[in-house]
Every structure is written in structure tokens, then in C-alpha cells.
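Quick one, C-alpha cells below:
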């Protein structure tokens, strides 16, 4: 069975002190949860807070550290960038790539997403590769085509083993930060389609091992239904990850859905 992942994408929010206090609060509120049944929990603060948050997390013991982006080259004349070995150096184990906000505002393309995913995997870290359609594309009936094209391009050239380790987050752009979630059966349908596309470019075995998350206005009140779907392996959470109560509510809801099965 695939172990669920609940990842908090803090986006451009929180100072170092605020990040420390949030992660301390999450730690306290998850302390009594059964570690065996707990999903993999990942928090992704801004770059400047990563080291301070890393110092608080006991690496590998409950909560993992994620970054929101990286550059695909290890070092050199690339002003302003941060590389995978540098993130690994401060105990980052997951890196989000291709978030729709990066595609929309910072020129991220499937080609750069693919380069970053390769760099991340080559250093033994795990990429969380985001894909998803805009409202316009959905209304034009292009959802399946868009998502399939993104997934094929983003995974190009990865080995079956690398694909099995990678994580994909299906995030319909119209559901991000809008309060409108994609209804669970539809999210599950697209995620199944993603899994079948992964099987096409690798193997069924790799596709069945890969964890595919849903993202877009996930809340404590929506997660149980989402996690009861056959192919949804967790969530990438934005707004609701900025407060310990709502984030921990999502972790608990995931556990309830899984143990209730
Ligand atoms: P949201 O963001 O939960 O605030 O909709 C999700 C994301 O962008 O990853």
C-alpha cells in the first residue's frame, strides 16, 4: 500500500520566527499520533527559514523538510539560484517543482521541470512535480490532454526506479487558493489518468508505486472524502498549512480515512 503524504506549501509566507513557531506547534500537536499510521508529513517553508526549521525537525522522525523550488545545476554563475546539493546540505528531502504559480509568474516550463526533477533524483531527493489545467482549459474540455502532456514531458528520460520514487501533485489551477475544491470523484479520475500515463511512459509497477497527490483548497473538512478515493495518495496543501490546527486536522483526517478503510 502506498504511504500517504501530506505536504504543506507555505509559499511566500512567514518570517523565520513565524516559521519556527508554526513548526513547533505542528510538532506538539502531532506528538501523540501513532507514527505507524501517520502519513509522511512535509513542510515547505521559504528558503530563508529552511535551516531554522531543519534544526527543529528531527530528520526522519515524523516531519520532513521540503523546498518550494531549486535550480538544476549544482553550482556556478547563476545569480540568485539555490541548488539541490545546497538544499540537501540542510536536510531538505522533498522539492516542489513546476507549481502553477512558478509556471505562471516565473516562466517555469515542462522542460525546466524535467531538468529539475532529474537533478533532484540524481542527488537522492524526491521531487513533488505539479501539474494541472486552468479553468479555461477545463471549460474547453482539454483537461485530460493538458495533464497527460505535462506528465509525459515532466518525466521524460527518468528511469522506472526514479519514477516510482517521484511524487506528482495534481493541482487544477482553478482550485488553488479559491476555496473551490475539485470534487473527489473527478480528482480521482484525473489522478487515475495520470497513473495510467505514468504506466505508459514507464511500467505498471512503477506507476502503482508512485504517490500522486491532490492539491487545491484542501481543508480538514475535505480530506477524509479525498483520502477515501482509490488513487489519491495525499495532498499538497497551501492556505490550510499556514496554521497548525488546520494542518494537523488534515493529517488526522488522512489517518481516519486510512484506518477506517
Ligand atoms: P491552496 O494551495 O491549498 O491554498 O489552494 C495549494 C497549492 O498551491 O499547492
Amino acid at each position: 500500500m502506498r504511504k500517504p503524504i501530506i505536504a504543506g506549501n507555505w509559499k511566500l509566507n512567514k518570517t523565520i520566527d513565524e516559521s519556527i513557531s508554526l513548526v513547533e506547534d505542528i510538532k506538539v500537536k502531532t506528538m501523540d499520533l501513532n507514527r505507524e499510521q501517520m502519513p509522511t508529513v512535509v513542510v515547505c517553508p521559504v528558503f530563508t527559514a529552511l535551516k531554522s526549521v531543519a534544526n527543529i525537525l528531527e530528520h526522519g522522525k515524523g516531519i520532513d523538510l521540503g523546498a518550494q523550488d531549486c535550480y538544476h545545476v549544482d553550482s556556478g554563475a547563476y545569480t540568485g539560484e539555490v541548488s539541490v546539493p545546497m538544499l540537501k546540505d540542510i536536510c531538505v528531502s522533498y522539492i516542489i517543482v513546476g507549481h502553477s504559480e512558478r509556471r505562471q509568474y516565473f516562466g517555469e516550463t515542462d522542460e525546466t521541470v524535467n531538468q529539475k526533477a532529474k537533478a533532484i533524483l540524481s542527488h537522492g531527493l524526491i521531487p513533488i512535480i505539479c501539474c494541472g489545467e486552468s479553468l479555461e482549459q477545463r471549460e474547453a474540455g482539454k483537461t485530460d490532454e493538458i495533464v497527460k502532456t505535462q506528465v509525459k514531458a515532466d518525466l521524460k528520460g527518468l528511469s522506472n526506479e526514479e519514477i516510482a520514487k517521484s511524487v506528482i501533485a495534481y493541482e487544477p489551477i482553478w482550485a488553488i487558493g479559491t476555496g473551490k475544491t475539485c470534487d473527489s470523484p473527478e480528482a480521482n479520475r484525473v489522478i487515475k489518468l495520470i497513473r495510467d500515463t505514468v504506466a505508459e511512459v514507464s511500467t505498471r509497477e512503477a506507476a502503482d508505486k508512485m504517490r500522486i497527490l491532490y492539491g487545491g483548497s484542501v481543508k480538514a473538512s475535505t480530506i477524509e472524502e479525498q483520502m477515501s478515493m482509490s488513487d489519491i495518495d495525499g495532498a499538497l496543501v497551501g492556505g490550510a498549512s499556514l496554521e497548525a490546527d488546520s494542518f494537523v486536522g488534515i493529517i488526522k483526517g488522512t489517518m481516519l480515512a486510512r484506518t477506517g478503510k
